[in-house]
C-alpha cells in the first residue's frame, strides 16, 4: 500500500540543494557508521602534527606582529622625553 503524497509545493533553489546534499551524506548504514567511529580517532591522531604546526605558526605570527607593533611605538615616548 502506498502512502498519499502531501500537496506541498516542492522546494526550489538553495534549500532544495542543501536538503538533497545532506540527505545523501547522512544516510549511512550501521556497519559503515561503526567503521567510521572506529577509524576516526586514528585519523585525527594522524592529522595532529599538521594541526600543531598550524597552531604554532599562528602563535609565532602573532608574536611577530606584537613585537613589530611595540617597535613602531618606541619613537613616540622617546619624542615626548626629548621635549
Query: Main β-sheet: number of strands, strand sense, barrel status?
Result: none
* Domains (count): 1
- Which parts are unreliable, with pLDDT below 50 for 5 consecutive residues or more? none
Strand content: under 5%
Helix proportion of residues, in percent?
A: over 70%
The secondary-structure class comes to mainly alpha
Approximate shape:
elongated
How large, in whole angstroms, is the Cα Rg?
28 Å
Count every helix, treating DSSP H or I runs of 4 or more residues as helices.
3
Distance between the termini: 94 Å
**Helix-strand pattern:** HHH
Number of strands: 0
Mean pLDDT over all positions: 81
Secondary structure elements and their pairing?
Elements: H1 14-25, H2 30-73, H3 75-82
How does this model look, in words?
The structure is a single chain. This protein is mainly alpha-helical. It has one domain. Helix content is 77%, strand content 0%. The protein is built from three helices and no strands.
Give a concise summary.
Helix content is 77%, strand content 0%.
Core attributes:
single chain; 83 residues; mainly alpha; elongated
Amino acid at each position: 500500500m502506498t502512502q498519499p503524497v502531501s500537496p506541498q509545493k516542492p522546494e526550489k533553489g538553495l534549500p532544495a540543494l542543501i536538503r538533497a546534499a545532506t540527505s545523501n551524506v547522512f544516510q549511512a548504514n550501521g556497519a559503515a557508521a561503526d567503521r567510521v567511529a572506529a577509524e576516526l580517532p586514528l585519523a585525527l591522531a594522524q592529522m595532529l602534527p599538521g594541526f600543531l604546526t598550524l597552531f604554532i605558526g599562528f602563535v609565532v605570527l602573532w608574536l611577530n606582529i606584537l613585537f613589530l607593533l611595540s617597535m613602531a611605538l618606541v619613537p613616540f615616548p622617546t619624542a615626548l622625553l626629548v621635549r
